[in-house]
Design a protein that fits this description.
single chain; globular; 4 helices; mainly alpha
Amino acid sequence: MITDEIIKEFKDRMHISHSSEDDNLKRLLSFSVAYIKEKCGNFDINENERAKELVFERTRYLYNDAVEFFEDNFLSDIISLGIVLAEDDTVD
């Protein structure tokens, strides 16, 4: 779930000061959460900073129309998060 706080964090990071794009940013963030969950496993964006970082990075790429470069540039981070999330599942 993309909260107003998540949108605010992303906007602060991207230096976006207006609210006219909030609906679009929420949609892009949601797409990125779904993508990272598909690649790495389930997580709560409010509790997992590594996952949030990847979601924000992918959303930045989406926002700048460069998403085709995201996976190549962040492959090691994607794999690392997937391993951590898989290990967390085995501990539960």
